[in-house]
Amino acid sequence: MNVLWLQSGGCGGCSMSLLCADTTDFHGHLSSAGIELLWHPTLSLESGDDAIACLQSVLAGRTGLDVLCIEGALLRGPRGTGAFHLLAGTGLPMIHWVQSLAERARHVLAVGSCAAWGGITAGGDNPTEACGLQYEDDRPGGLLGAHFRSGSGLPVINIAGCPTHPSWVIDTLMALAADRFSSHDLDPLNRPRSYADQLVHHGCTRNEYYEFKASAARPSDLGCLMEHLGCKGTQVHADCNIRLWNGEGSCVRGGYACIACTEPGFQEPGHAFNETPKVAGIPIGLPTDMPKAWFVALSSLSKSATPSRVRQNSRADHLVVKPAVRKTRLK
Questions:
Q1: What are all long-range contacts of 123-130, with beta carbons under 8 Å and residues at least 24 apart?
Q2: Disulfide check for 224: which of 59, 126, 209, 316 has CB 3.0–4.6 Å away?
Q3: How many independent structural domains does the chain possess?
Q4: pLDDT digit string (tens) for 16-60?
Q5: Three-state DSSP state, 4
């Protein structure tokens, strides 16, 4: 399976994250699955004329293209010309190359939230007219248009994240190489269900504090980050606390609130990332499946039943009160 990887308007963070894949032999890992990396701007030896020759060979049909991976937002400015981002040595806009290569590809992958929705690059006034491959935030369209389908008949596969977890990318490529990926493996925003059918909340080490609504007041506190510090983990689709980063961590485990980086529009929440907007003391962003009335009732009950141990530990950066040691055998 031939894979071509291009970087557009972004920071390169998804490529850097990819290098942290859980393997001692990155290229061997791909090769064992029959995956050939035709070219990657930072991982390949070829550059200049050799790199351009690779792209031209694909367009001419001499080299088959199974997967086109795009990292970074697509820069359409100024005024739709794409001239803000020319592919070096060609004089042609990157958006021209992406559109042409996408027509040749059996599958097209948007690697990262910039390529999927526009992401950070499309924030603010968006002077570069940045967009995703097939979305602008949560609106279908983007560079390729809402009706685009690759050679396989699938839309753009949005491996969203800022950055992506390396296994989200590797697992998707492995599934494609094994011909075990279909439209049923995509969620409503065309993200792979292998990670998007989970919530960041699942597996969170702060869940006991969440259940008792024992909230942190500072990032260093052990308590739940949802009520006061902006955590959106109960709403965000990703398995960050199940499939840990670098084998041992996640944002919330490091004391940082989940900022919803796999979701469209996360870059402009309308408030500071570390603040929870509220109405009448109730967070606006509630868990995805929970009606507001239920949440209010549950919160009141939970807070009234919060063990002293949980309450004290939630406002500390270490366990102040340890769980009691008692017999657990049933009589």
A1: 123/267, 123/268, 124/268, 127/77, 128/9, 128/73, 128/75, 128/76, 128/77, 128/84, 128/85, 129/75, 129/76, 129/77, 129/78, 129/79, 129/80, 129/84, 130/9, 130/73, 130/74, 130/75, 130/76, 130/77
A2: 209
A3: 2
A4: 999 888 887 888 889 999 999 999 998 899 999 999 999 999 999
A5: strand
| CATH number of the domain encompassing residue 225 | 4.10.480.10
End-to-end CA distance of the chain: 61
151 shares a domain with 118: yes
Residues of the chain with pLDDT under 50: none
181-191 pLDDT, tens per residue? 999 999 999 99
Q: Quote the domain boundaries for residue 162.
A: 2-195
How much is the pTM? 0.94
Last residue of a domain, one of 177, 195, 213: 195
CA-closest candidate to residue 200, choices 231, 246, 223, 169: 231
Residue 280 is predicted with a pLDDT of 80
Closest by Cα among 132, 141, 47 to 88: 47
Assess contact for 131 and 85: CB atoms under 8 A. no
Task: Give the list of residues 6+ apart from residue 266 with CB closer than 8 angstroms, or none.
Answer: 113, 119, 162, 259, 260
Structure tokens at 241: 């606390």
Mean pLDDT of all residues belonging to the chain: 94
Same domain, 152 and 262: no
Cα 267 versus chain centre, distance: 12
